[in-house]
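$ fold --in a.seq
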Amino acid sequence: MTRFEKSFTQQEAIPNDAIEAAVEVMRSGRLHRYNVLPGETSEAEKLEAEFAAYMGVPYCLACTSGGYAIHIGLRSVGVKPGDLVLSNAFTLAPVPGAIEAAGAKPVLVETGEDYCLDLADLDAKAASSGARTLLLSHMRGHIVDMDQIMEICARHQLTLVEDCAHTMGATWDGRKSGTFGKVACFSTQTYKHVNSGEGGFLTTDDPEVIARAIIYSGSYMLYERHGAGPEAEVFDGLRLEVPNMSGRMDNMRAAILRPQLERLDEQCARWNRLYHVLEEGLRNHPHIKLPERPEKEGYVASSIQFALPAFSPEQFQALLKRCFERGVELKWFGNPVPNGYTSRYDSWRYLEVPDLPRTIEVLSTMCDMRIPLTFDEDDCRTIAEVISTTAREVAEAA
């Protein structure tokens, strides 16, 4: 039986120019973003301006993580303790965690077969819950119909906050993911589209929202050192009212990210080439179902998801075990026990866990797999062969 030998957690090396930039910051000793010489622009400030330009928006804040960006993004658009926030039931734990950190309560929305939130359930819960904010997670890079999202938000007067941790560089109908809502939040954690270990961005076109976010991030009274921030007078009514919740990005991480940002679109194209090879290898399998991606979705597929609709929980455990023994690491979001980065909504016990039968149905048959850029197209053909053969074996054994 074919065995795959490469690691699913090994990322590409940081580019040499990024390493040199980080070393230069270390030599200077000026790692803190506000520790600059007169007339000098910090690496963090340069990165913010460059990411804002990439997104085509006026304002950007570099943060310690994507989860932190969501937390202060919610606070910056006016979410208060006790408020209800609509959000995906299928997402990663930092998303409801950010809602909880803001003192709000999630209203979880059912999941469709496309792995996006169910629009009919969103419409119904927006009408019945009284929530005024939608935290939309583009989970695993799947973009829901944004035309319908904007119509629902307008009809129910919802403020949209986008979690774009998995859609940096992606588009809907030619428009960048992260430019639809009042706020967008991105991650630069190791397994995202640019890698600083941990980190994130908050972007917006609203001057008061970014002013609040900058103060929340711990700017002290140094908010003028944000080249992708608003004019100083925007801070006048906020600077003594908004609390400091320190979560600034440092200059070393910013230095590592700036050269990567220049290569982002090229990296996104590489991910999609690998995804297409995997998709081709799994598409016609009798037991595997791949999601249909809308024509308007310009996705960045740094991972792949697929369903085995007829498999039982025991068959999933057998599939995962055999694939792992053959070098292929699959994750199963249907597992009722959290494992690694995967957890099902009903394991987040700090929430009032709702009954979401459609989400359970979808997740109970779904597999998830990272696609590191250390893989090549031949690697993806081998992986597809391992998954295909193993799925047939497990089905026949049953």
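$ fold --in b.seq
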Amino acid sequence: MSEIGNKTDESVSDVNDVCAHAGICGGCAYRGVPYPEQLRIKGGQVAEMLDGARVAADGAYCGIAPAPRAFAYRNRMDYSFGDEVKGGPMTLGLHKKGSYMSVIDTGGCLIVPDDFNVIRDAAIEWALASGHGFWHKRSHSGFLRSLVLRRGETTGELLINLVTTDEEVLDGEAFACMVTELPLDSAVAGILHTIYNGRADTVACDSMSVLYGRDHFFEGMLGLRFRVNALSFFQTNTSAVEAMFHEAFAMLPELDGMEVYDIYCGTGAISLALARRARSVTGVEIVPESVEAARENARLNGIENCRFIRGDALEALESMDGNPDLLTIDPPRMGMHPKALKKIMSYGLPELLYISCNPKTFARDMAAMEMYGYRLNRLRAYDNFPYTRHTELAARIVKGTADIR
């Protein structure tokens, strides 16, 4: 049972009653929908996607697991500076539903920790008082771009990253002082200033400076300690993803003596967890910052039987000698590239573990794997992001008549 200020999940039957942004904010799609109904909808959508791709589930789909808590679960939020109407006052928040240009003020958001709301409120007050302008998406001019807030759920450490262009001069000391004087429940590990002059409406980095503390925070998951840098990916709902990983790992065979390949390994959470059970693990990841973070996390946890290769999945697999005994796959939302899938299928392994953040592309990939003689043995969906449209899943995929556990 999670807390929402003085409310709990049990006392909130309709989030419209407590959310000021219902029907306006593009962040949540199921505001006003009771949580059991959200689970029914999302679980049904997974089944429909499998059916639409003509995947033979044959009783393998085990339904959807609820999140450990439905509110205050996000440990990262990327707020944008902008305006809700053209020429209106500067705001700081999320994009308006159905609008790429409009940004609405999202103070009091229910799916983030209270500290995020406190920092966001103070940041927009500071921005308005400072006289800085915001970066305009059409003209590609302006100064303030984003405020990225991250938190270690198990450590309580906060990392604050203010993203701007170089068109104006930031008084970094004043900004850092403002943040450190806020009444926060969590400790501020670091305050950063990132400069990015690119045209893409995203969080990227031309240069970065530390205004206070350090450029990373720590998080704990799966009995491991992770160093998470400002631009490194890490799971956005730690407790929910940890529960998903535990169930996913339970689908695997005994790994003693096995060589495991972890494809699309990110910062190494799955790789490092499996390395404690396997003979060796090789993680493959294309994002340079994530690879460096994974290597650092291996050192941090004293794990020496795990290596990380930077590169495209197909190119990395083609360059590696020998065959793995087991493959785990955790691709981005677009799923696997057909050539990478073909290479993975060529190993002819008796089983695979596929973790997905997009049931639609999973269903597509699973239909393709059926053409190579694989079938779905067990599938579990997870509602790791309540009130949004996102659903994740974990699947055991077996070759032919491989043993069913």
